[in-house]
Amino acid sequence: MAIRSVSDSIAFYESVFGKGRISANGINFDVRCPICAPSDPSKKKLSIRTDTSANHCWVCGFKSRSIAPLIRKYGTQSQLSAFKDLFGLNDQASQLVTGEREDERRAVLPPDFQLLTVAPVSDPDVKAAWRYLVGRGLTEKDAWYFKFGLSNEPRWKRRILMPSFDASGNLNYFTARAIDKDRKPKYDNPDVDKNPVVFNDINLVWTKQVVLVEGPFDLVKCPENTTALLGSDLDERHEIFNKILINNTPVALALDGDMWETKTPKIAKKLQEYDVDVKLVDVRPWGDPGNMSRFEFEKALSESIRPTWEDAFAHRLKKAASFNLRF
Ligand SMILES: [Zn+2]
Fold first, then answer.
1. Has residue 327 got a pLDDT over 70?
2. Which of 137, 185, 231, 245 has the fewest Cβ atoms surrounding its Cβ within 10 A?
3. What count of other Cβ atoms lies within 10 Å of the Cβ of residue 26?
């Protein structure tokens, strides 16, 4: 990233939001919020960090990991490019969010982490892990590619650990899938904030369409350029969301089938609010991408469609009407 001083940040913020003032703590720069747009210009309630551009409005409550969303809505394309030059790929700094602890912990693999591909198959846990993966239609090549591993620590034992790396190649997260049917929870994750994490960032090209799935084990069935939301939420507080806005990335949403009428339209609408090109991948016949073959997923992805909200509304009306008819 470009070397940027506090005065560079301030000059940039003022070019977008008008005159502001540095806050008492010397970290935040306060400007007029373009969302609640107070008529009194001296009211500067949008507080922006000079180091990361994480921001928060004390009046309307808007909160974002970077100011990219506000530039997309209220600024120009050239301001967005300038933002990218100033604040672009800044994985460490982008972890900080206004109002959250600044010493956010990063995920660390257990010290005895061992790659499955080099673990001794005489070990019953290793054998069970392979059985589990083969049962899910995965191969040794997948195990190498995704760097699946095992640990003997009680919390992670008999779980397949799947690490994730940021754009600079540093570990930024891992997930641990239980290989035994009745183990709860099915997925266990390190105790760190998920919002700054872009799962599989090392393999992502942000200038091309990025596919969004819910869980890391959905990702293994998808083609390149897929990341996992590590849940089913996505908004301005998430690093993935901000990266999409900064890079003008087209998105294919492939959430689990049961989200088709809930979280899927919610996220799609949120992205469309910022003019992001969104397509929906219908995986309902399979439940989730993890249950599909690569071929089936490729096909569903090629048949993905841009949402038409009128249809969804009409569908709801029809459902409501048929419901009423029964009485
Ligand atoms: Zn506001």
1. no
2. 185
3. 9
